[in-house]
């Protein structure tokens, strides 16, 4: 049987961007850091997120039927750490609302979705979201590789 640590270490070799998934339930905004995000389809415009069975966000997305994927900029490492539970002290987070869904202010992109479908896969639920709206900004993305935050190297002019 394959060792869990080997599997996690191997998956950590895939460099990703960092997102915060947000939703609203009973008038309260909620968020969680995630790097399991991908585009699925252009027509219709669909994206996929993967939420662990122990995450509080799982029931919240089932309840709300909506979520936003907020692609973080290199300057938003603290935002990621906050929503990953790595920062324990209370910090006020400013949300902006797009079509009634809370989004992270200053993110490179806010992708607002309604749940199109969901599928339980092992110890996670895959939510496919139909994109309702997008807000896009220029900037450098926050990256994640081998369990560490980073940023893309600046392009060298030749």
From TrEMBL:
List the SMART domains: Flavin_Reduct
- The answer to whether keyword Oxidoreductase applies is yes
Keyword Oxidoreductase in the entry? The reply is yes
For this protein, the record's Gene3D superfamilies field holds: Electron Transport, Fmn-binding Protein, Chain A
Q: Which UniProt keywords apply?
A: Monooxygenase, Oxidoreductase
What GO MF annotations does this protein's record show? Answer: FMN binding; monooxygenase activity; riboflavin reductase (NADPH) activity
Organism from which the protein derives = Bacillus thermotolerans
Q: Provide the protein name.
A: Nitrilotriacetate monooxygenase component B
Q: One of this protein's GO BP terms?
A: pyrimidine nucleobase catabolic process
Domain Flavin reductase like, chain residue ranges per copy: 11-151
């Amino acid at each position: 049987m394959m060792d869990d640590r080997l599997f996690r270490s191997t998956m950590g070799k895939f460099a990703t961007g960092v997102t915060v998934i947000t939703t609203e339930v009973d008038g309260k905004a909620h968020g969680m850091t995630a790097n399991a995000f991908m585009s699925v389809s252009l027509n219709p415009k669909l994206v996929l997120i993967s939420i662990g069975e122990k995450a509080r966000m799982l029931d919240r997305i089932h309840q709300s039927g909506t979520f936003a994927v907020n692609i973080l900029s290199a300057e938003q490492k603290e935002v990621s750490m906050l929503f990953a539970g790595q920062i324990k002290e209370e910090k006020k987070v400013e949300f902006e609302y797009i079509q009634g869904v809370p989004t992270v202010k200053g993110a490179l992109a806010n992708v607002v979705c309604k749940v199109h479908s969901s599928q339980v896969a092992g110890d996670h639920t895959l939510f496919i979201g139909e994109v309702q709206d997008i807000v896009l900004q220029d900037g450098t993305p926050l990256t994640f590789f081998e369990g560490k935050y980073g940023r893309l190297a600046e392009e060298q002019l030749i």
